[in-house]
């Protein structure tokens, strides 16, 4: 009836005893035994009732059980004992029962039997019954097993959590310590001292510590070892006797919340500031589909994709109206890819994740490093086939685009149901078949990264300046065409002085009417609106107004260019010089391999930007569909304003046409959301990266603020060479900026809508972005010296500050604050 530590593992003895049995296989723990719950049946009915009521007088411990108990205790050679519960449903993953059962310390051997009765009684106590009800437990065993363990005569004792139980941070190990036995700490009689060991090795400790740093590390190592042993964070009790750390018990931490990391380093280029519900729901649908297709393309088994469906469904989140990557899920998806364990940092650099994977975030790969490498080699063969098919895949993609967007439909004439059908077709034929852009983007990342490594290894190009020159001035890049067209219109406007004032200040009607007097300019103006009118600031946000909605914005930009001399850059010459350097330093197979990689890097980067333009056209068609739906809902008296459609979701809009709507009260929905999002717009921006324990909406998020960075110098990612010295202009909205001369532009991020101002840039300094972001690609193509990913540059610099930047090294130096001293003559090298 009494079980020793070896026998206990195969019997129902409760969570605490099971844990000790497992721990005994890997840890030195004080000797112990356990009395199973069935021993309670040795009592008579009267004795059982007395135990339930807590009336211990007159209860005699069953003689056979007592004799067996004393014999076992003598073998364990202890003087004092800990007598505690081990209930069958105690210390589980969902409920710990901490403090619900009685425990007794320093019990002499002859008093152990009576304390066993007291532990049995605690199973029937009112507090344990209330706890069961609170946890939703019914029908569980009331009588606990009784664990009897040799008492450690501790000089110091306490508890240790292998993860912070308050913040759920798994990089922090939290220890509470007290001199003597730990019962006063566990019971709450004393607070004890708190120590925190960080993953970095740093120890946060109180004044006059009772633990040495070595002891803190030993205790934390014991907790982490227990966590690894059980496969989940643990709450352990420990004691130090004669310099040795003992593990007394270990149970799961039941209070930990799921931790999620959020980051907008890369996605803010597409979705800056507050984004409406319609745009978020539209983007979320796209990410859900695109990432599934991405991993499928890279050889992830379909079973793994199905098992991780919840991960793909939450690739982005909406926090106070702002879109963030769910970074935890992003890394889980990358962890599914073959080769993740050996190329994670390479992929982070190409994807623009500035800080890498948080130490707390543990991503499990399915194969381990060795098998993952073999898996990667197998996948490479499949990627070779995909690469060979890429030209045909691009051609089929453009064919589908031409079929769907080649014939412009008169959306205002369509019924609501026809608009829904048109959207479903757009989604099925284009949005859900983004295979060519996905494949091309992946190979752009690969070839660009390989080219970077070859330039560094073979051409001693450690800073990336030579590589950036090699991929600049490619030509045939659609993103550079608008700049050329704008300059052509500005040149025509200079010869039409009578139109200049109208372009600067006239209304839309006045501008369109005045264009009749300049046929060539009129043709180019309307051609630009037709071909590039969907390109606008925040062009992927469906609520954004395009140049087709505001043609006067195009006129204003052309007027500014007409009044400003064009900025000349020498990107073509630098490209040719870089090629010459490569040919001089390389020969034989190295030269052939290098220029093969270069050719494909150029091609994929060019097509990446060109396909992004096509994405703009697809999003533009979706924008028109939803606006037309809004107009229809106003006619049906379901909305007050067509623009209110952006405060509904895609599912809600389609649901009205398809019979799946859960409410028809669109007006109230839109009004409530508009009011909520107006509050978000009035709030300061949020941090670039943060973590949430549990629901992100329960977190208290501090606004993004300046850190303790250098006041005179910043280091970013160089993306387009050139040294420029001059004053800066911080641009929040390129539509409202008024420049009288070329200047150094400073921005938080850019998108294709910035093309209306980039021709006036002497250089470009951007807070966000990566080597393959729009800012980097376009600055290289236009030959504008540029640096991206500069920490807090929009807060650090202000209009009129004088800086010197080097687009080859990524270094920006502030020479003079605005208004300090005499302005220095600008230089451009």
UniProtKB/TrEMBL annotation:
<dbReference type="InterPro" id="IPR002192">
    <property type="entry name" value="PPDK_AMP/ATP-bd"/>
</dbReference>
<dbReference type="InterPro" id="IPR008279">
    <property type="entry name" value="PEP-util_enz_mobile_dom"/>
</dbReference>
<dbReference type="InterPro" id="IPR051549">
    <property type="entry name" value="PEP_Utilizing_Enz"/>
</dbReference>
<feature type="domain" description="Pyruvate phosphate dikinase AMP/ATP-binding">
    <location>
        <begin position="48"/>
        <end position="198"/>
    </location>
</feature>
<dbReference type="GO" id="GO:0005524">
    <property type="term" value="F:ATP binding"/>
</dbReference>
<keyword id="KW-0670">Pyruvate</keyword>
<feature type="domain" description="Pyruvate phosphate dikinase AMP/ATP-binding">
    <location>
        <begin position="206"/>
        <end position="257"/>
    </location>
</feature>
<feature type="domain" description="PEP-utilising enzyme mobile">
    <location>
        <begin position="740"/>
        <end position="810"/>
    </location>
</feature>
<protein>
    <submittedName>
        <fullName>Phosphoenolpyruvate synthase</fullName>
    </submittedName>
</protein>
<dbReference type="Pfam" id="PF01326">
    <property type="entry name" value="PPDK_N"/>
</dbReference>
<dbReference type="Pfam" id="PF00391">
    <property type="entry name" value="PEP-utilizers"/>
</dbReference>
<dbReference type="InterPro" id="IPR036637">
    <property type="entry name" value="Phosphohistidine_dom_sf"/>
</dbReference>
<dbReference type="GO" id="GO:0016301">
    <property type="term" value="F:kinase activity"/>
</dbReference>
<dbReference type="InterPro" id="IPR013815">
    <property type="entry name" value="ATP_grasp_subdomain_1"/>
</dbReference>
């Amino acid at each position: 009836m009494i079980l020793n530590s070896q026998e206990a593992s195969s019997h129902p003895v409760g969570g605490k005893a099971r844990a000790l049995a497992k721990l005994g296989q890997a840890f030195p723990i004080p000797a112990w035994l356990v009395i199973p719950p069935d021993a309670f049946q040795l009592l008579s009915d009267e004795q059982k009732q007395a135990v339930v009521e807590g009336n211990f007088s007159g209860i005699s411990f069953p003689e056979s059980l007592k004799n067996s108990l004393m014999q076992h205790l003598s073998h364990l050679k202890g003087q004092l004992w800990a007598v505690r519960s081990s209930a069958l449903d105690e210390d589980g993953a969902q409920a710990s029962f901490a403090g619900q059962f009685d425990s007794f310390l320093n019990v002499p051997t002859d008093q152990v039997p009576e304390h066993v009765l007291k532990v049995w009684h605690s199973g029937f106590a009112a507090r344990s019954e209330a706890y069961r009800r609170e946890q939703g437990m019914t029908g569980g065993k009331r009588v606990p097993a009784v664990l009897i363990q040799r008492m450690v005569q501790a000089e110091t004792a306490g508890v240790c959590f292998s993860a912070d139980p308050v913040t759920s941070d798994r990089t922090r190990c939290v220890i509470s310590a007290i001199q003597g036995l730990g019962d006063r700490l566990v019971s709450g009689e004393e607070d004890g001292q708190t120590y925190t060991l960080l993953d970095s090795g740093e120890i946060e400790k109180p004044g006059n510590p009772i633990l040495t740093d070595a002891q803190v590390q030993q205790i934390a190592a014991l907790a982490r070892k227990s966590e690894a042993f059980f496969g989940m964070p643990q709450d352990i009790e420990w004691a130090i006797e004669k310099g040795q750390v003992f593990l007394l018990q270990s149970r799961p931490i039941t209070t930990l919340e799921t931790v999620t990391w959020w980051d907008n380093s890369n996605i803010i280029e597409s979705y800056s500031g507050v984004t409406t519900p319609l745009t978020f729901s539209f983007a979320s649908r796209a990410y859900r589909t695109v990432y599934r297709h991405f991993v499928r393309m890279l050889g992830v088994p379909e079973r793994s994709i199905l098992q991780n469906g919840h991960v793909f469904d939450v690739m982005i989140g909406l926090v106070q109206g702002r879109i963030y990557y769910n970074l935890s899920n992003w890394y889980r998806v990358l962890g599914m890819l073959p080769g993740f364990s050996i190329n994670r940092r390479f992929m982070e650099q190409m994807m623009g994740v500035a800080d890498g994977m948080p130490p707390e975030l543990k991503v499990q790969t399915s194969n381990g490093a060795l098998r993952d490498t073999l898996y990667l080699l197998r996948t490479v063969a499949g990627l070779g086939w995909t690469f060979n098919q890429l030209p045909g895949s691009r051609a089929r993609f453009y064919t589908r685009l031409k079929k769907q967007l080649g014939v412009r439909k008169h959306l205002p004439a369509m019924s609501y149901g026809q608009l829904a059908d048109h959207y479903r077709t757009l989604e099925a034929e284009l949005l859900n078949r983004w295979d060519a852009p996905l494949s091309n983007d992946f190979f752009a990342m690969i070839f660009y990264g390989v080219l970077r490594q070859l330039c560094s290894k073979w051409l001693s190009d450690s800073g990336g300046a030579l590589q950036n020159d090699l991929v600049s001035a490619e030509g045939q890049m659609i993103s550079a065409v608008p700049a050329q067209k704008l300059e052509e219109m500005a040149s025509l406007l200079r010869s039409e002085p009578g139109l200049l004032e109208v372009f600067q200040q006239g209304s839309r009607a006045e501008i369109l009417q005045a264009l009749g007097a300049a046929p060539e300019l009129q043709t180019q103006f309307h051609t630009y609106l037709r071909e590039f009118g969907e390109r606008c600031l925040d062009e992927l946000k469906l609520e954004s107004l395009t140049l087709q909605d505001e043609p006067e914005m195009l006129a204003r930009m052309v007027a500014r260019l007409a009044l400003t001399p064009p900025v000349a850059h020498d990107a073509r010459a630098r490209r040719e010089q870089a090629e010459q350097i490569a040919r001089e330093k390389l020969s034989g197979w190295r030269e052939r391999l290098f220029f093969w990689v270069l050719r494909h890097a150029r091609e994929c980067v060019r097509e990446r930007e060109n396909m992004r333009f096509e994405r703009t056209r697809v999003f533009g068609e979706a924008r028109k569909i939803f606006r037309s739906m809004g107009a229809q809902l106003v006619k049906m008296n379901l909305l007050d304003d067509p623009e209110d459609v952006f405060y509904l979701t895609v599912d809600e809009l389609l649901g009205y046409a398809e019979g799946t709507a859960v409410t028809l009260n669109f007006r109230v929905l839109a009004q409530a959301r508009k009011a909520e999002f107006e509050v978000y717009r009035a709030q300061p921006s949020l941090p670039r990266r943060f973590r949430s324990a549990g629901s992100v909406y329960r977190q208290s998020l501090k606004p993004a603020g300046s850190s303790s960075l250098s006041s005179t110098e910043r280091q970013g990612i160089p993306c387009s060479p050139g040294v420029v010295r001059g004053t800066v202009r911080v641009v929040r909205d390129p539509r409202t900026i008024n420049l009288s001369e070329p200047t150094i532009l400073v921005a938080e991020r850019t998108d294709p809508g910035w093309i209306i101002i980039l021709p006036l840039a002497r250089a470009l300094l951007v807070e966000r972005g990566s080597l393959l972001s729009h800012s980097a690609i376009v600055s290289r193509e236009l030959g504008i010296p540029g640096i991206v990913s500069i920490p807090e540059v929009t807060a650090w610099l202000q209009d009129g500050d004088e800086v010197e930047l080097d687009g080859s090294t990524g270094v920006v130096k502030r020479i003079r604050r605005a208004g300090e001293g005499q302005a220095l003559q600008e230089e451009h090298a």
